[in-house]
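Lecture 7 notes: from sequence to structure.
We start with the chain below.
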Amino acid sequence: MKYVEEIMEKVVKSNPGQKEFHQAVQEVLNSISVVIEKHEEEYRELKLLERLVEPERSHTFRVTWVDSNGKIQVNRGYRVQFSSAIGPYKGGLRFHPSVNQSIINFLGFEQIFKNALTGQSIGAGKGGSDFDPRGKNDIDIMNFCQSFIIELEKYIGPNEDVPAGDIGVGSKEIGYMYGMYKKLTHRYEGALTGKSLFCGGSLVRTEATGYGLAYIVEEMLRAKGEAISGKKVVVSGSGNVATYAIEKVTQLGGVVLTASDSSGYIYDANGIKVDILKEIKEVRRGRIKEYCDLVPTAVFVPDKKAWEVPCDIALPCAVQNELQIDDAKQLISNGCMTVAEGANMPTTPEAVSYLQDNGVMFMPGKAANAGGVAVSSLEMSQNGIRKNRSFDDVDNELKLIMKSIYTEVSQAAKEYGHEGNYVMGANIAGFRKVAKAMREQGNV
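Predicted structure tokens for the same chain:
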């Protein structure tokens, strides 16, 4: 429709070269066009879409730090505060050499709808740096984190913007940033989530994204009268999301056959052993091929993707656009019937369309991986009342949140005549919440 085309043209013109951001916006606009059509006159008058695709504010800053050899290093830091319509900005920090303005904008935009789907009172933000923590010692990581938060501190706070972790940022990095934040502000408050338990963190936060992914897949299958138990599952990645998705799928009776990193993937016909995977990736910080040294029956396949392995369920948990059209065709030919995104936008638009056209149940990341930010919001609540909750308590609430997300997504798709199209359902359900809040708060 014309209004959607006009908005997309403005996004491309205002953000030249930001292909990831363009992709994210186009996917959402395509999905919600059926809603926009019913309210086009009102949305045009309020400039609602124009405001939706434009961040409320965006910060770019220099991070100068000294490494353990006494040499000065310089990186670029980012924080985009996209929408505060339903709460303070909330979203992770990513430390990776691929980070640029396009990546941050796409992640921040996706966060609007993901956070709305959780049912929690949280807005959307995202940030990070092109700093690469791989191969760095703890002194270098600490020095960078402290310099980074010195710049970021002036833009965040428990009622303004609450960053969390993402790729390259775990509880250690959050801890270093939180320590410096306290020193700068003289306040012990929940301005960052993903902290260790000793610093006010929440139980289940480490596991939340991976666990939540497994829980929503279980809901997808339950709607078809099936379950994860007995299913063959392929997983890409071997970081936090992949590890705990593998753990929960295994607990639910599925057999996870693969894990991967940038060097290739491992195949274990007997099921990936999570304790060994954790030893390699969390303790040794090694490469995935080391798994085969400890499990001689496993096979390492270099420079290949796990999608070539026959499976019932595929869970892309690595990086954006990792699952492409040829991978989708391979999954279909190998019998895959369910795909759920553990990473942010890991499937290309062409691959998504192909999977859906061939009857695959496909759940987008803004719904499937929302468990992490949901538990981050629960951590914010715990910090606010100075009271921790038990593992089972938080885990049970996570299950309920993921079940609610599935129900909302499914019902929204059905309401607009696209039953089973979870991409449309997720975007419509998230958009309607944010749009309603924006209308009620006036022209801000």
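Points to note: The CA atoms of residues 47 and 443 lie 9 Å apart. The two ends are 26 Å apart (CA to CA).
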